[in-house]
Recover the amino acids of this structure.
């Protein structure tokens, strides 16, 4: 049989990455792509597929965000480079 079906296309969503593989679900190449989900600033759930390199970078960004948020919750400290555009009046 010259046509083999059942392959999925896997691609990293990071612009300029260009990593693409065709594989069966759970195959050697398929497991090199992971989905990550997060909540954006508009409280909407977002998701993307990443290659292993960009998944590691995404995870590093989230860990840094978690540390910034933990500091904010502890004493209201804002991360450097982050500004607010409005204030709340009582
Ligand atoms: Zn990538």
């Amino acid at each position: 049989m010259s046509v083999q079906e059942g392959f999925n296309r896997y691609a990293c969503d990071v612009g300029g990455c260009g990593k693409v593989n065709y594989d069966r679900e759970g195959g050697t190449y398929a497991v090199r792509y992971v989905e990550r989900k997060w909540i954006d600033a508009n409280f909407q759930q977002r998701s993307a597929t990443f290659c292993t390199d960009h998944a590691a970078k995404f995870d590093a960004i989230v860990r840094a965000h978690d540390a910034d948020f933990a500091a904010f919750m502890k004493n209201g400290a804002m991360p450097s480079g982050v500004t607010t555009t409005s204030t709340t009046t009582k």
In short: The mean pLDDT is 93. The chain has one helix and four strands.
